[in-house]
């Protein structure tokens, strides 16, 4: 594999030359590692001297008083600001979870306003979605559902797509990237859990994803001590995401 290059198509967008403002962290599915990737980017950006906020518009499947995804980001990365706008007890898509709980659904423009407030106060605002890009999050003033993609469009955000390493990831990643491209949202990919013992399918997927790949987070990284996580995170990410990984061949040699 050749080194990461700014000549690759994904990096030709000027958004990646100096990443700032709102950045969506979405995924090809649920459970792909969005939270640990969010923490890794937050840690790397903080180490690079950026003031970072992390916002999760909605989290479902959280019991009253139980720590959620944002608590994990705070533990691992210690960003300047971290907040969840709303939580629902049932592990469902946020809009569905709100209906089941008979709670008020997330209003799109309230979320936009909350994030824009953080953008004014921080260099980088990571917005961690729920599930995939087109999961129904809440309602528009018209009563129609809105998605993470809609939020990104209103914010003018860049997007990081967290993807799996294994079988099926090429199709799922391509579908998510295509949805972002149709909305003119610049996007890159990060593998959320690189296995400790990768097989042929993982290596071939890495090779296919590489032109759009901005990082690979090792499986089990969330179990690291916070200080170790923060020191390690830049090595998992390319310079476009405030990391130091600029040659995949070196990375492969180090983990092989």
Automatic annotation (TrEMBL):
This is ATP-dependent dethiobiotin synthetase BioD. Its EC number is 6.3.3.3. Substrate binds at residue 60. Catalyzes a mechanistically unusual reaction, the ATP-dependent insertion of CO2 between the N7 and N8 nitrogen atoms of 7,8-diaminopelargonic acid (DAPA, also called 7,8-diammoniononanoate) to form a ureido ring. The active site is at 56. Homodimer. GO terms for cellular component: cytosol. ATP binds at residues 31-36, 69, 128-131, 219. It holds the Pfam family AAA_26. HAMAP family: BioD (MF_00336). Belongs to the dethiobiotin synthetase family. SUPFAM superfamilies: P-loop containing nucleoside triphosphate hydrolases (SSF52540). It is found in: Cytoplasm. Keywords: ATP-binding, Biotin biosynthesis, Cytoplasm, Ligase, Magnesium, Metal-binding, Nucleotide-binding. One of its GO terms (biological process) is biotin biosynthetic process.
């Amino acid at each position: 594999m050749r080194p990461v290059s700014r000549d690759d198509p994904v990096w030709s967008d000027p958004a990646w030359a100096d990443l700032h403002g709102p950045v969506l962290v979405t995924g090809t599915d649920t459970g792909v590692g969005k939270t640990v990737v969010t923490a890794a980017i937050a840690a790397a950006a903080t180490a690079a001297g950026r003031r970072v906020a992390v916002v999760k518009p909605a989290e479902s499947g959280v019991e009253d008083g139980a720590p959620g995804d944002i608590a994990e980001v705070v533990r691992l990365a210690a960003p300047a600001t971290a907040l969840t706008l709303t939580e629902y007890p049932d592990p469902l898509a946020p809009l569905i979870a709100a209906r089941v709980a008979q709670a008020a659904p997330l209003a799109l423009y309230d979320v936009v306003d909350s994030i824009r407030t953080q953008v004014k106060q921080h260099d980088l605002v990571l917005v961690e979605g729920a599930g995939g890009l087109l999961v129904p999050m809440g309602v528009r003033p018209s009563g129609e559902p809105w998605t993470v993609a809609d939020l990104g469009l209103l914010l003018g955000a860049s997007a990081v797509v967290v993807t799996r390493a294994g079988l099926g990831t090429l199709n799922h990643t391509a579908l998510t990237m295509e949805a972002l491209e149709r909305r003119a949202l610049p996007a890159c990919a990060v593998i959320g859990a690189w296995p400790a013992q990768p097989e042929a399918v993982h290596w071939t997927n890495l090779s296919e994803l590489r032109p759009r790949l901005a990082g690979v987070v090792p499986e089990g990284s969330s179990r690291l001590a916070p200080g170790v996580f923060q020191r390690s995170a830049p090595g998992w990410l390319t310079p476009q995401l405030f990391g130091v990984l600029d040659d995949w061949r070196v990375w492969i040699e180090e983990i092989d």
